[in-house]
C-alpha cells in the first residue's frame, strides 16, 4: 500500500487549521483513517507519515543568516551606546538613532523568520 501521493500544499502543515487538515485527509489521503476524530497534532503527524516527510526537513540546524544577524545586533549595540551619550538637548539626533535601531531590529527578526 505504499502508493506515491502527490499533493500540493498551499501552506505548511503546522499553519493549517485542524479543519483544513481533516478535509485534506478525507479528500486526498485515503490511507489515513479516523481523521474526523483526530486532533490537530495527530493529524499533522499522520499526514507527514503518509506523505513521507522526514523529521530532518523540520530541523535544519543553525540559521544560514546567523552571521548577518550577529553583525546587525552588534550595530544595534553600538547605536544604543551612542544614543546614551547624547544629551537631552539633541533630541533630533536621538530620534534618528532610535529609528535606525528600530530598523535594524526589524531586519534581524525578518532574517530569523526566513531561516
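^ Assign residues to that structure.
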Amino acid at each position: 500500500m505504499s502508493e506515491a501521493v502527490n499533493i500540493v500544499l498551499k501552506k505548511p502543515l503546522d499553519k493549517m487549521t485542524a479543519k483544513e487538515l481533516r478535509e485534506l485527509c478525507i479528500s486526498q489521503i485515503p490511507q489515513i483513517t479516523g481523521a474526523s476524530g483526530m486532533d490537530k497534532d495527530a493529524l499533522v503527524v499522520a499526514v507527514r507519515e503518509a506523505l513521507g516527510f522526514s523529521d530532518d526537513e523540520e530541523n535544519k540546524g543553525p540559521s544560514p543568516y546567523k552571521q548577518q544577524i550577529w553583525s546587525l545586533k552588534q550595530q544595534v549595540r553600538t547605536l544604543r551606546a551612542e544614543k546614551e551619550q547624547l544629551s537631552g538637548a539633541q533630541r533630533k539626533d536621538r530620534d534618528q538613532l532610535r529609528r535606525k535601531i528600530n530598523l535594524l531590529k526589524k531586519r534581524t527578526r525578518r532574517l530569523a523568520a526566513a531561516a
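Residues 66-114 form one domain.
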